[in-house]
Amino acid sequence: MLKQTYFLSALFAAMILSAGPLYSQSASLIAAGKKEGKAVVYGSLESDTAETAFNAFKKKTGIEVDYWRASATKVMDRALSEYRAGKPLFDIILTNDNPMQIMFKEGLFAKYDSPSAKDFTKESIDPNLGPRYRNVVIGVVYNKDVIKPADAPKSLEDLVKPQYRGKLVMPDPTQHTTTTQWVASLDKLMGKEKADKFIRDLAAQKPILVESLLPAAERVATGETPIAITYVKYVYIFGQRGAPLDYLRLGKFMGDGHYLSLNSKAPHGNAGKVFIDYFLGAENMGMIAKLGEFVNRKGVYPPLPDADKIQFVEMYDLDAKKFAEKKKEYQQIFLH
């Protein structure tokens, strides 16, 4: 018994000693961050989710967050302008893959290997940007009060069947860049020949075109239009408000990845590192998953049926020239 007690005491002491450097390193970083006063974040994370995460971060660390939210393109434009002028005001950029890659090539980001990154799936870690903290997953959502599950489409190809003509809403691929990407990436799921035919058949269905993914979800939530191409997470978000929504189990779903990176000239570099460590950590990832987000931390899923079965396929990155080409092509297909 005495030997066992001695062994457990020694083991506990060893655990404290081994954990000590990690704790002191974290504590010293937080202390340095608190001296800087705040972390300045530019991003496109939705305001409600951001507010939940940032308030929890402040409570945990005592560090304020100044958040400027805009579209991914506007975030990139402002960050690049400040950086090129030699007066960047931001510490962290928090947005989707395409503009993040462009900003990385411009030298905006410092390499920071957060200890929180170890709990992300290997396939979600970019060698330059670090963990892809969430996937925004696009799928087909329908209103169960208007279309019974037995009568709902079972695949993307089903959307072009005659019975669904005029019953579909989607963002305008000639205007909404994420939808332009989604349509342009359909060959990842179908192959080029099938995708080209599907796009033309989809346009022939005369879908209702709206400005973005949220209005598409709002129309299907009210039943005004029974089927939508939109974010899958809206099934949960609008379901919390009583909307009778479900989504097609397509197996493979396309979407965009979102990252956060530290400015290579961050005015509050320590606060920025503390922010990244917390944001990628178990507490925050669990919190935003509960709000319906598809995070890439291992074993964490949103409260959505079969979320763990979704196979994520990242859309193509398109440069400005390619976006212009595709939007022009889709004008001919969808608007004529």
What attributes characterize this protein structure?
twelve-stranded mixed β-sheet, 20% strand, 2 domains, D-Maltodextrin-Binding Protein, domain 2, two-stranded antiparallel sheet, single chain, alpha/beta, 336 residues
Mean pLDDT: 91
Low-confidence spans: 1-24
Which class of secondary structure composition applies to the elements?
alpha/beta
CATH architecture designation of the largest domain: 3-Layer(aba) Sandwich
Q: What's the number of helices?
A: 12
Order of SSEs, N→C?
Answer: HEHEHEHEEEEEHHHEHEHEEHHEEH
Determine the CATH superfamily of the largest domain.
Periplasmic binding protein-like II
Q: How many strand segments?
A: 14
Strand portion: 15-25%
- Helix fraction by DSSP (H/I, runs of at least 4): 40-55%
Shape summary? globular
Q: Supply the CATH class of the largest domain.
A: Alpha Beta
Domain count, please report it: 2
Question: What is the fold named in CATH at topology level of the largest domain?
Answer: D-Maltodextrin-Binding Protein, domain 2
Radius of gyration: 23 Å
